[in-house]
Amino acid sequence: MKPEKQKCLLRLLHALRSNKYDNFTSPYMKHRDGKANPLGVACEVYMKYTGKGMWESNNYNHPYDALLFTTDTDYAKNSSLPSSVAYYFGLSSDPSVKFSYLSPGHQATFKWKREGGKWVKVSVLANGGVSHKEIAHYLEATYM
Fold it and tell me: Residue 110 has what DSSP assignment?
């Protein structure tokens, strides 16, 4: 990963570890009450450091009462980043991390292994109840 992308990713890792954002277990990135999944946190960091993008009301009538993130050129599709946000961090629109898990329960039973394991999307881990801090660890171990 290029140094300028590492710097951006470090900002995201810091935000995920900061306890500023409550976990939001949903296929959507951010709730009106401020809870956000890790991809929603990435959009927040992008907005803070670039001054671009905004959260808009989701016109769909669904139980999550979610917000959608848009930029000048594109928008988020449920559990994926807009391409400009993904590019900022040097990631794909729904980045994957390498992990293995201890049991098939999926509820916060994930344990990192540097060797072995499978590639899983960050959105899947977030929806499975994995904390922001754990996901920050997986991102760091995979991309830094």
Answer: E
Q: Helix crossing, 132-143 with 3-17: angle to 10°?
A: 160
Sequence spans of domains, the chain: 3-143
The predicted model scores a pTM of 0.82
Model confidence at 85: pLDDT above 60: yes
Residue among 124, 118, 132, 133 at smallest CA distance from 106: 124
pLDDT digits (tens, 9 = 90+) for 105-120: 444 434 444 444 678 8
